[in-house]
Structures are given as structure tokens and as C-alpha cells.
Q: What sequence folds into this?
């Protein structure tokens, strides 16, 4: 596991841009954390970086559940599964195909049950109470494991990611 201090929203955006640069179709990011932790903020920043458009409109897929975007490097799906009632509904969303062909960002990945893609980055956000600070804990699986050393989150030298066993 790698732990990254996200001191403010700008640090969250830098982290998202670094992850976007490292991602490729067939890879997924599972975003977990409590309400208000910054999952949607990180996903929006990732999509904007993927599209190469810092002003792109990236609405929350809370009601649509899935929002795909076509970028120069392929498709990215932003999924918010908070309202998903049953893991069996995942099949109806087409996520299995997306996991193979697109970069997929999943908020509330616990709604997937055990149907997790092998090439995933589990990213858990924790709120540091009383501040805008967050801590991101990244656990890579599959191809993400080979990418973690190359990710530059833009954090100051004293706050570089810490490798944790």
C-alpha cells in the first residue's frame, strides 16, 4: 500500500492527473471512502486530465450511474454505484465489457461484490477532521503494481508517498 497526503483540493487534482497519465484502457480505479471524502472530486479531475481539458464538464453520475467520456487515449467511464441495489445489476450497466476496453473509475466499489477487475487500483480516501486535508491509500493490483513507482503526484518532497507493507 502507498499512502499519499492530499493537503488540499489542488493536491487531489495533481494526484488524479498523475493517475490519469499512468492509466490505460483495461485498468480500473476503485474509489472508496465516506460521503464527502473527495471521491467525485478526484474522479472529475482524472476525467479532465484524461480528456486533456481542464474545463470539461464532468457531472456526477449519481443518477445515471455511468458516464462515459471519449478521450484521445480511449474511453474512460466514471461510475457512481451508490444507488445500485444489488451486485447483479452490474451486468446491466455493461461494466464487465468496460473493464476490458476502457479506464473505469468506480465510486462505491463495494456494490460490485466480488466482481472486481484484476487490473485495479484500490484508492481509499480518508478525511482528516477539522481540515481540507485527505489521506489517500493506494493498493495496486495487476498492471497497476508495475505503474506505482512511475507516478509523480506532484506532492512536496517531505510528503512523498510512503510505501507501506
A:
Amino acid at each position: 500500500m502507498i499512502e499519499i497526503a492530499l493537503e488540499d483540493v489542488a493536491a487531489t487534482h495533481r494526484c488524479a492527473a498523475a493517475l490519469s497519465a499512468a492509466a490505460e484502457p483495461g485498468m480500473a480505479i476503485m474509489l472508496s471512502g465516506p460521503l464527502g471524502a473527495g471521491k467525485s472530486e478526484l474522479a472529475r479531475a482524472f476525467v479532465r486530465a484524461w480528456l486533456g481539458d481542464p474545463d470539461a464538464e464532468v457531472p456526477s453520475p449519481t443518477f445515471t450511474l455511468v458516464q462515459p467520456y471519449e478521450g484521445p487515449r480511449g474511453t474512460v467511464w466514471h461510475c457512481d454505484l451508490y444507488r445500485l441495489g444489488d451486485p447483479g445489476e452490474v451486468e446491466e450497466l455493461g461494466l464487465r465489457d468496460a473493464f476490458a476496453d476502457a479506464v473505469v473509475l468506480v465510486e462505491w466499489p463495494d456494490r460490485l461484490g466480488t466482481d472486481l477487475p484484476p487490473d485495479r487500483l484500490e484508492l481509499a480516501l480518508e478525511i482528516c477532521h477539522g481540515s481540507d486535508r485527505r489521506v489517500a491509500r493506494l493498493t495496486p493490483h495487476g498492471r497497476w503494481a508495475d505503474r506505482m513507482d512511475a507516478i509523480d503526484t506532484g506532492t512536496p518532497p517531505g510528503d512523498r508517498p510512503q510505501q507501506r507493507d
Q: What stands out?
A: Residues 9-22 form the longest helix (14 residues). Strands lie at 2-6, 28-32, 66-71, 74-80, 103-107, 120-127, 134-140, 162-163.
